Amino acid sequence: MSQKKRKSFTAEFKQDAVNYYHTSGKSMAEVASELQISSGSLNNWIQKAKVNDGSVPHRGSGNHSSDEAKEIARLQKELRDAKAAIDILKKAMSILND
Hints:
Elements: H1 11-24, H2 28-35, H3 39-51, H4 67-97
């Protein structure tokens, strides 16, 4: 049995699809068919755009509501990385001291 490969769409494509749906006056199924995407995907993008001030969030965008939230996320990641590095050094020290 072969696995179906998921299509990956750019953030620009998703945003254009949502904008096209809103401006075309066509049904969701018609727009999805024209763009050769599933109506479920288009519906998800539209719903996400509604709660995100009209813009479709995408991976890598961070989806943070403010600059402060971005900074907090960056600092949390930095702290996790530092703790991981310390744990590795502790293990190395215990191995070398044996």
